[in-house]
């Protein structure tokens, strides 16, 4: 255990800002030589009211502070305990920032933050918040968000972190220490006493490149749809509790027919159809019988893994059942392996899962990176995570690591196989390259599972990422247009320029330090290093100034709004004097950067000409430097078009600020379909677009009809021509019996402030009637916050927890908390909860939708695209909202045994003309229009009746 003197501390405050908020509670524990020597905790009297949200989170009320000591009294005790000690805390900079503002002197104390340390030790944790970590690691934490309880929990967490990191092999610890010495990382002291565990030299550990299922002997032929899905087919023989699903066979037949006759197909397959297996069986058949590769693209990595680990396992069971025909080996053994393996060598069909380049570490870039003479704090923490990564029993996927925003930037620009510096160079020729291993594995796989982003990356760069294929399945296709739009677009931030500039500076500085005192350092070219470094400082300052001007320009022209606004660069902006002046300034920056690049390239040439035995690394150094130059050139080329005038724009340009306040320049195609038509559709024999929610009308101006042309919106956005046939499958669920929709008749318009109290009261009454088991879907965090404040205490008294997105934790955390205790919980979530979550059975009895999910009208892309339609609202805005509405409704019924109630609070559904189209987009669900006061009784009666019939 850490032997240096340290203090673990935590505070509770009235807000986030030391300049305007107060400390209301503090706790600290002092350790010397590994033993506790003192502790202190106290509430603190303040001269203002505690905000309601703070009281809800901490349980500290204004009355609790009436008799508490003033800060000046508490300050003396805190100062006495922290004096001369290192300080440990969870997000410690927050606590220390407040305490310093209140006059606490930390002298030369080192701050040890358990957040990044926990990310190193426990990279796969769902969340690295203190309460989530304590739950996951079984740490006692009874009074969360109270200072002493949080302090004790942080201390226990620190002990677990120490034990985990101290268990790394000694060579890894020694390498980490060597790198830490070349950094200004404040927490380097943590590793002073870490020794690591001695391990046998035969121990090996490496990053695992990809997921691949391989078969030692493929079956002689693929199975037909009839053989698998017919009555008494291999599917029914493979599963003990098999239930026939006619829609599944219908879809599989249609997909097989499209593959066989080489045309494209759009297929909406509602929840419960079993669409994954419905397209996997024809995919396997075409792969085996015609020796054709099939690529399956999903939107999420989660579905990639589900296909590999669940649905392909089912496919293997089917082929196993057909063993007398296909002579398949008898036993599947699913596992993750490096480059190959997967189904234990027993699968009848090779299947590879490939992710985007950005998920893979480039070993060559890592070797270069580790040579640096100095590391920034974000660089060293990322490097430590990477060095420890293979020993944490992970699959080597970036998804296994938690990176901060700064670390992610370093990863993207410096270390990943997606780095712009890698253009068929040394890394790509390295046989150990993880991405190349993964690519090699796909060459032998007739079925390759990718995500939309990787599929589009391959298209945009003209191929080379994926092996040749002619058959494509795009699952979760309702997201494909959005991903395609981003892929054909471009974004630029200040860091796009400064990261490669700083990398070049780091290389030059390293050369100067390593060779200035050697014979090679006497070469004339060495005299040019200092002017280049000085020029880099000037260039970085100019870059900072320009992006500050752009940020000021954005803030000046964006009107205050409740939404996060972006500035659309339209014709009015482009013809303004301010814009022209800004463009001139950007052009001067580009020219200054190009001039600096020319000097660097000239220096690189002279350096190569002066190479001698005194500088054996010359070739390697020059290659690294030229790679950094290539990155900078490419990023500069991305910046230039943003400020060029355009007569007939096909792209939309807008500037916005990200969460950290940095300006982001974005350019996107207004409509992406023609690009896809040229790059994708024409080159494939058969493409399947499928999802549970694809159909929505493209309304005619004069006679809107929901039954008319249900895929016209999709066809318009993706430019799908007559080669795409259509299929909409019926739902296998009996919605007339399994579901009920309730429309309150006396609720105020949910867009008005007057609706907040009655909505909160209705949620409270419904939550009691359903005994928890409720999901509320919203379109803004502000609404959730207001409702959270009104619901937490009343529902707590009823034994029901309110799990509100952002306020109770992130998506994964609160979803897991709900699933652990659904009968005493309700979930309140925004966009990420409208789809992609699966809560079957009695765990979910009610879904409540607050507002119809329309896009923000001022969003630049939405605003521009709407103008390309004769009726933007009916033809563009409405279909998008209907798709999301259907996705939200889809959370309710997930199996044939589910029953549930949908409550729609937005009166526009019944009072606006367009409301009928939302209702008609749903399956045949009974609708009850009643007063709010009658809803709880109806819910209880209906649920009781439905469950008694089961």
**Average pLDDT taken over every residue:** 86
Shape: globular
Counting copies of identical and different chains, the oligomeric state is single chain
| Helix residue percentage | 40-55%
Percent range for β-strand residues: 5-15%
Task: Report the structural category.
Answer: alpha/beta
Biggest pleated sheet: 8 strands, mixed
With strands numbered from the N-terminus, the spatial order across the biggest sheet is 6-9-10-8-11-16-7-17
Q: How would you explain this protein's 3D organization?
A:
The chain is globular. The model is unreliable at 200-218, 326-348, 421-426 and 701-707 (pLDDT under 50). With 950 residues, it is α/β, with parallel strands linked by helices. Strands 6-9-10-8-11-16-7-17 form an 8-stranded mixed beta sheet. A hairpin with a 2-residue loop joins strand 2 and strand 3. It contains 36 helices and 24 strands.
